[in-house]
From TrEMBL:
Taxon lineage: Bacteria, Pseudomonadati, Pseudomonadota, Alphaproteobacteria, Hyphomicrobiales
Protein name: Bifunctional NAD(P)H-hydrate repair enzyme
CC cofactor: Mg(2+); K(+)
Keywords, comma-separated and alphabetical: ATP-binding, Isomerase, Lyase, Metal-binding, Multifunctional enzyme, NAD, NADP, Nucleotide-binding, Potassium
Gene name of the record: nnrE
Domain YjeF C-terminal positions: 220-489
Organism: Aureimonas populi
Length: 493
């Protein structure tokens, strides 16, 4: 059975917690199971040999820390626990603190060295303001010690909703979280502070998800795999759809060619580059399996857009900024065709966003901005602290799928769904990889995959193709790495 890769906001996690308690599981049992998962991870990962310093904050994350400390001591570890000067535990955390039953040292006395293992139970889902004072000092000492840090639930100081650092944040080697990951585990910089992430089952039934109805997901194949067009013996190329990429002039066709090649390798049955007369010769020299069509006037494009055999269009890479791009996008959208708008195509609407957002025609639209392009199109949203909010609000406003790119690309749909990509590769930080992504999205659209799933699949495939590479991988290399990724995906069906 496919497990949907849900992510839960801290509020949704608290809801899951409440529903579980209402169903008869005591909160103390949840805390005991959480603390046990932490103690088990300490021993699995780091063995018995190291002294363990457990840091307990004022809430239930601290409660988990007390349970873990007690269970580690019972299993023969050398454990000390440190807590704040003013901490007054309540509820399950008070019971767990009491069950520890030994000395509690003060955080202000916390010192450590690289041979210790630090268990970070300062703050979890309840972080409500920036970490400061003695807590910030504790974080700084822990990070500077070079001792490995195991974070309970999330590294203290990372916001579970946004992945932001609030004040100061632990840099963990391992994070043990409960039931489902949170957006802050996948969004940067949070992701970089988590180290390896383990998800522990603490006895919350997945049945609660039907009540919570989460709309945020990790961008994993389970989210879209079933929607992909599977290879079939009976398919001919027309069943796989036809992608059209609009090219710039003679010296600006490279980006469109990268996109076109990615569309073909990404599984479109046919791909055409629509080129102005000035670009025909250069494009013809570089293209073989990809067809070429002259497209100078708006009338040429209208004829293309009205041809129902052509399924998905790419406009933007190397196209040039201005009226021609706006008019071309208008023609494609008015004809109800699927469009991926990128680069110059996005920038062309920077002073006339409404012309794009309040468009005629109901064809699917996918916008693929990086942060700079996003700020030009959505200046009032660009400063919002949450990348999920930025992408979601923009998607709703534009009534389009928004792919907000970066090391933690977020894909958002107007119906509120959003996916955070988690297989991003630093190898993609090089010129032209965005053009390749537009082609991969258009290939999925041409295959008939719904726009949100098409964008999610393409983002994942793009990153997977680059995995294992570092600097030196260039955009031209990427399309030929895609078929292997597709083969693996289809084998897993
Ligand atoms: N959700 C579950 O099923 C379970 C979660 N567990 C663990 O509980 C924490 C969440 O607990 P909560 O008490 O809500 O939050 P915290 O422990 O993170 O801390 C809240 C506490 O801290 C104060 N506070 C917040 N920010 C600051 C700050 N910057 N400086 C000082 N003080 C701050 C706030 O006022 C509260 O008093 C979850 O992460 C899990 O680890 C359960 O153990 C099991 C079930
Ligand atoms: K923590």
């Amino acid at each position: 059975m496919t497990v949907i890769p849900h992510l839960l906001s801290p509020d949704e996690m608290a809801h899951a917690d409440r529903l579980t308690v209402e169903s008869g599981v005591p909160i103390l049992q949840l805390m005991e199971t959480a603390g046990n998962a932490v103690a088990t991870a300490v021993i699995d990962q780091f063995g018995w040999g190291r002294p363990v310093s457990v840091l307990a904050g004022p809430g239930n994350n601290g409660g988990d820390a007390f349970v873990a400390a007690r269970l580690l001591r019972e299993r023969g570890c050398d454990v000390e626990i440190f807590a704040g000067t003013t901490d007054r535990y309540t509820g399950a955390a008070a019971a767990s603190a009491q069950a520890w039953g030994s000395d509690v040292r003060l955080l202000r006395d916390f010192r450590t060295g690289p041979d210790t293992l630090i268990v970070d139970g300062l703050f979890g889902a309840g972080l409500s303001r920036p970490v400061d004072g003695e807590f910030a000092r504790t974080v700084e000492i822990a990070n500077a010690s070079r001792a490995p840090i195991l974070a309970i639930d999330i590294p203290s100081g990372i916001d579970g909703n946004t992945g932001e650092i609030r004040g100061a944040a632990m840099r963990a080697a391992l994070t043990v979280t409960f039931f489902r990951p949170k957006p802050g585990h996948l969004l940067l910089p949070g992701r970089a502070h988590c180290g390896e992430i383990r998800i522990a089952d603490i006895g919350i039934s997945s049945d609660v998800l039907a009540r919570i109805e989460p709309t945020t997901f990790a961008n994993e194949p389970a989210l879209w795999h079933a929607r992909l067009l599977a290879p079939s013996d009976t398919h001919h190329k027309y069943d796989r759809g036809h992608t059209v990429v609009l090219s710039g002039g003679a010296s600006h066709g490279g980006a469109a060619r990268l996109s076109a090649m990615a569309a073909l390798r990404g599984g479109a049955g046919l791909v055409t580059v629509a080129s102005p007369a000035s670009g025909l010769l250069v494009n013809a020299t570089h293209l073989d399996a990809i067809m070429l069509k002259r497209c100078d006037e708006e009338g040429d494009l209208r004829a293309l857009a009205e041809d129902r055999r052509l399924n998905a269009y790419v406009l933007g890479p190397g196209f040039g900024v201005g009226e021609k791009a706006r008019a071309s996008a208008g023609v494609i959208l008015k004809a109800g065709r699927a469009l991926v708008l990128d680069a110059d195509g996005l920038t062309s609407f920077q002073d006339v966003q409404r012309a794009l957002f309040e468009r005629e025609g109901a064809g699917p639209l996918v916008l693929t901005p990086h942060d700079g392009e996003f700020a030009r199109l959505f200046p009032d949203l660009a400063g919002l602290p949450s990348k999920l909010d930025r992408a979601r609000l923009a998607s709703r406003r534009a009534d389009a799928i928004v792919v907000l790119k970066g090391g933690d690309t977020v894909i958002a749909a107007p119906d509120g769904r959003a996916a955070i990509n988690e297989n991003g590769s630093p190898a993609l930080a090089t010129a032209g990889t965005g053009d390749v992504l537009t082609g991969l999205i258009a290939a999925q659209l041409a295959n008939g995959v719904p726009a949100f799933e098409a964008a999610c699949a393409a983002v994942w495939i793009h990153a997977c193709a680059a995995s294992g590479f570092g600097t030196g991988l260039i955009a031209e290399d990427l399309p030929r790495l895609v078929p292997r990724v597709l083969a693996t995906l289809h084998q897993e069906r």
